[in-house]
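PROTEIN DATA CARD
Card holder: DNA polymerase I
Chain length: 960
Origin: Anoxybacterium hadale
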Amino acid sequence: MKIIIIDGNSLINRAYYALQRPMITKSGLYTHGVYGFLNMLNKIKMDYCPDYIAVAFDRKAPTFRHLEYTEYKAGRKKMPPELAMQMPLLKEVLDAMKVKMLEIDGFEADDIIGTVVKKAEAEGLDPLIITGDKDELQLATEKTKVIITRKGISEFDLYDEAAMIEKYGFTPEQFIDYKGLMGDQSDNIPGIPGVGEKTAMKLIQEYGSIANIIENVDQITSKSLKEKIQEHAQLAIMSRRLATINTEVPIDINFEEFKVEEPDYDTLIDLYIKLEFNSFLKKMPPRGSSAKPVFSDGGAYASDAVGSANAAAGMADGPDAANMTAANAEPGDTPAVPLLRDFSIVSSESSPLAKHYKTRDRSHLEACLLADNSGLELLRSELLEDPAAVIKVFNDRNHKAIPQVYGMSILSTKRYYFISGDQTELLKEAATLLIKTDVRLTGHNLKEDYYALLANELLPADAHSESGQLFQTAFDTMIAQYLLDPARSDYGLKSSMLEYFHEELEDEAALFKEYGQIGFLGRSEEKYMEFGQKWCLAIDGLTAVLRNKLIQEELDHVFCEVELPLIEVLASMEHCGFAVDAQELINTGIMLGEKINELTSRIYELAGEEFNINSPMQMGVILFEKLNLPFGKKTKRGYATGIEILEKLKDDYEIVALILEYRMHSKLKSTYIEGLLPLIHQDHKIHAHFQQTVAATGRISCTEPNLQNIPIRHELGRKLRKAFVPENDDFVLVGADYSQIELRILAHLSQDPELIDAFNHGDDIHKITASKVFNVPEDDVTPLQRSNAKAVNFGVIYGMSGFGLSTELNITRKEAERYIGEYFKKYTKVKEFMDGLIESCKQNGYVTTIMKRKRMVHEINASNFMVRQAGERLAMNSPIQGSAADIIKLAMIKVYQELAKEKTRSRLILQVHDELIIQTHKSELEKIKKLLEENMEHAVALSVTLSSEVSTGENWYDLK
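Structure generated from the sequence above:
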């Protein structure tokens, strides 16, 4: 019978320091120590299958060792608060796992472990100690084994008495003498000064014990060692006592309480949800009888989980499996009726329509619908009878080509349909009904659904309502989850279900891989229906939970006023796309190729040989060995050849300057020529993807391709914008860019009168700042001073330190700190505001924008100075950057809706940072310029005026 005894403090310490990046929940709990501990515990249980298990912990109270030697453990680094907060969490988890925990005042975990092991051996058990502390090696015997963790938490060393003798050349009991001689720096056990591991090991191997060494000290040939032992003999004896584990701790031990048993799964599930341990949740069995599994075989939610969430949100209970039974065909039924599922959805905002499609060329979608007249006629009649039905359209999340033919399933408020056959026109009619009737839409990642309807031309031309909206969006669970936790990496429905309902939703990709080829593998209607039910019900249940959380966190305003209406705007922009002159790109690529060849030849000439310029290893050898250039820093992979090294050398060495130029041209060619050309579709446009849930600040990101990242600092990079043009000669591009929006937001949020007055009078803010910082009249400010002041203005927003500013301006750190100091002396309200942000963030754990968007900043209270400084910079910058995101989003919504209400032929096609671009019909040019300027400058009311610069051009390059 095996018993495992774990050194709790040692193991969680090892786990905490082993993981390079901290794990932090959205509520601010650090969890990586607990996570690593549990990973190790699970591995040990799996590998050794114990019959009994216990975890011993230290207590804060002094031990008998402190009473004997007051300096015991003195100077030991205090447990960081990020780890201290995890100790009670670990104990909660262990309690739910029904793992016996042991601790007692006056003794350490080592002593408890020693006592347990001694009694366990006496009762015929085989003990296994798990620890990161080598002190416990003294407990190893023929029966007791000690596992010492090494290299974090992933590798172990196993010792018994024989392994100890093989490793050290002496017994576990002699290990105590070994520690007494050499001491223990971590516990501040002195040992004999000057005696290290090798000397202590040699002495014990030769003399066996401290007592025998002292008795035979005259035989030691080294004069200095002999003197050390003679002088510090009593210190060694005391150190041995301090290092000796007490195996007679007065603690009750009943091994029946140590038996391994089934955890309290319901409590454990709740804890894993709280700690956001999704990988552990996946391995949990369904909840017990007190809390049913989220989905039964019929695909419904557990009534307990959803009922309580809905009740908290003031809503009726969600769908119930009892209402979902197979429907029998009755006289007069259409051919599709035998495939129906009768059920009801109480919430009027649940998700009844599900559709899958495949892509034709990444963004041009081709609907592969399986529908028959009877099914669509039923849908049409259901919609006419009950327009409160809400749809959810399934689609390929990444717009990637998928070879399978997908099915279409439709949930109505009364029935679930699987529709077969290709009836696109009938589907258009159904989609029109959804738009024309009073239907509010709820789903997960609705932007992709709206894009699918637009790209497949399933909506009528006059679909926009008087408000300028095409769809009435009620709720999007992905967007809600993003607002609640903007720093997470996964907003998939599957992970959300796991987090909130402990339900492993079926993987969508795996389902369609298995059942997608309907014609070849047979009919799969039942599988599609089952999957569609679960998906739609998942969204329905999550809506109830997430709506309530948004209200609790006071995020409902930004959700309803900004994020929900933005979904349609982004879908429309993706659908409209941006026309591209492919020949312009090709010509630019040819020019870049010629330039790259020229640079390559000259680099080879200067190097004296040919080499792979794209290989850092080969380049490092050429630069730092053959040419003997300075700043060579060799790593395991060769010499460092990053930008920071090459920038130091470029002014003095032509080859380095040419290498940097080569890199720039190569990147432009590979990323923006070879990368963009394949993304041009049959309509000669690029349909980029606009992501709403990527940036924690709230900014919109752009992918496939990232049009926001086309370089503008170099003229050659800017010229790439010449390839982006209107779709034909009837159109022109109109763009507007906010002027100094982040500085204006700073003025508004800080309420600094100097900044507010300057912006409202249209003054040159950088010139004014230069005048104040450098104490010169405005008329005497030089271009260099203005440039430096500009760096200070924006540096303040980003919490830039004196070191950062000195690097940017190439000045001394002292001078840079003086600039920042002068700035804050003149703009005192800004200083108060920034300091207030940091203090508020330390108290609350987050900062907010003008629309009350939240950004959690867990680093703000970190014990590590560098991490804490990074947190302070985030606290200062996030409200400004996030507010800028709020404003541009509000402007986009206003512009989009105005264009729709005016029924213009012009369309909003791109947002890049603080810039909006409209493809404008030439007959509407003056109207659009005015519309764009007014809606951008009146997107939100601030204490300062918002200013935008409107321009027109035949291509994107001409807008600037």
